[in-house]
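2024-03-11 09:14:02 DEBUG pipeline.ingest accepted 1 chain
2024-03-11 09:14:02 DEBUG pipeline.ingest length=141
2024-03-11 09:14:03 DEBUG pipeline.predict start
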Amino acid sequence: QPWARGHPSRPVAHWLKLLRAQEEIQRLNIEIKRVSTWMVHDEAQLQAVIDSLQTTDLLMAKALMEFTSDQKRVNAHVRATLKHIYELEGYTGEMGIGQREGTDGLPKSDMHVSDLEEYSDEDEELLNDVFEGVSNLTINE
């Protein structure tokens, strides 16, 4: 039959792909803000722990400072990538950070080692997926 040859189904397939792309854009808008929020809170947590270790364990504080320095360099690259994403013509998400669930805004400055949040493998996998997705985006300059 002529109707079964596939031509009429192409527009439907394109339409479904367009719907999926729109869903993905909405999801990325959320994940991009989530990464921004995570970086700010993570850096604040690390600094708070370093501050609390300064009086109790200088060796551990020094090791954590080196780690934090490396982490801040990585975060600077991620922030630069996020800045490019924010500037994309089709970007529809919000800029800046969000509010971490269970908090009342910006990270506390009086955190201690016992306050550190454990990130699950699922959180780590999600962040890796976001970074992979962001790195696959084409940035036009």
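2024-03-11 09:14:41 DEBUG pipeline.report The chain has three helices and no strands.
2024-03-11 09:14:41 DEBUG pipeline.predict end
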